[in-house]
């Protein structure tokens, strides 16, 4: 394990919180769940939990933030290894190139991946996330076995590589081991390419138990489960997984994530098999509640929007990946109007940029409806403000961790924006998030990032970024060589 700070210029250690004793920060301007507030004193304890969030305070002994402070954004959907494929699948394979041809390439790539590759890719990725303002990640982890499908001596080998990468980077982690049983609706046999993914409800629950033994849950890490999709898991398998999870330590309120209604073909196949649409089918099979996060949910009808809103489940939107894969466009106006909770994920990692995710979510609606500010509301007329606050809250719920913004009892996860950035300077608080989301030029206007009260990014730099980048490049070179 590389020690944090090994290759860090000395000046980056100034004002660095070691997270051992608790600390405080005075914020001339901070975005709280109830809106922008001035002169906010943040205090957190040694465990990294906020114990005081007081607007209208004096700075006292606390050091002062150099720019506006916003809550860290949870990234609610990640397949870490796919970061290494970004840009590799943009050449036409057939005139009807689609998600399904992309998936073929992804499978081929996944066959070559070794544990060392995965760890190097994930460490680099999680550092990129932190630098972009994501302070938590939900890892939808389906690569379980060695190439060919033989289990590793330790069945948690690859999951533990991801946990190690997250710990070194310093990002909050919700690991979701994936149950993958079949290749299609009606228990179609899995293909040879899917052999690395396969498991049973019992093997998944055993994996989660093993993770709890090796690295027990704590405020920085949480374990849920992820039935891959309704096409890859049988109704009985889903029942067994969900009821088995309830019996496990920390299982009663553990997050459950599932891919759903992403592809048009999936809707047609589900209708042909069950007579119901995927979200409708899930709503009728399971008692959805706040533990559930439905990834994509791109294609829904009105009844499905209403059912989801009533359930308390979160929808996980991944706009840049959904655009890249040609999934289609969710009716986001309907989603927000229904009151459904939602958050954002970078999924296949063609971009690690929460601003791009929020912007594309709005732009998809503008292009479709030929209007502007489609996702604003009368009570929150600034589109970016509405999107940021809702994505933060929904994303937090999806992590199953206490990361719901700058409030007492939540984790001290926050981002100091660069107050001198040409696109942010001289803006009123009401204009700041609009500038952040809709005015993007060179680089990220992010100065410092804190996770659980520990400073992990200083002046735009992460102390491990160079070593992580070199290891990542070695992994890529190895994976791409013939
Ligand atoms: Zn996914």
Number of domains: 2
Whole-angstrom Rg? 22 Å
Which class of secondary structure composition applies to the elements?
alpha/beta
CATH superfamily caption of the largest domain? Metal-dependent hydrolases
Strand content: 15-25%
Indicate the CATH class of the largest domain: Alpha Beta
Mean pLDDT: 93
Largest sheet: 5 strands, parallel
Kindly state the number of beta strands: 17
Number of helices: 14
Low-confidence regions? 1-19
> Which ligands does the model contain, each kind named once?
zinc ion
Query: How much helix, percentage-wise, in residues?
Result: 25-40%
CATH topology of the largest domain: TIM Barrel
Q: Globular, elongated, flat, extended or rod-shaped: what is the shape?
A: globular
CATH architecture of the largest domain: Alpha-Beta Barrel
Q: First CA to last CA: what distance?
A: 30 Å
Helix-strand blueprint:
Layout lengths: L22 E10 L2 E10 L5 E5 L8 E2 L4 E3 L1 E6 L20 H14 L2 H17 L2 E8 L15 H13 L2 E8 L21 H14 L6 E3 L2 E2 L7 H13 L8 E5 L3 H11 L3 H8 L6 E5 L5 H10 L2 E4 L1 H6 L7 H6 L3 E4 L9 H16 L13 H17 L14 E4 L11 H10 L7 E6 L2 E4 L7 H16 L2
Parallel strand pairs: 1-4, 6-7, 7-8, 8-9, 8-10, 11-12, 12-13, 13-14
Antiparallel strand pairs: 1-2, 2-3, 5-15, 15-16, 16-17
Q: What would you say about this model in short?
A:
The protein is α/β, with parallel strands linked by helices and 482 residues long. The chain has helices spanning 99-112, 115-131, 157-169, 201-214, 235-247, 264-274, 278-285, 302-311, 319-324, 332-337, 354-369, 383-399, 429-438, 465-480; strands spanning 23-32, 35-44, 50-54, 63-64, 69-71, 73-78, 134-141, 172-179, 221-223, 226-227, 256-260, 292-296, 314-317, 341-344, 414-417, 446-451, 454-457.
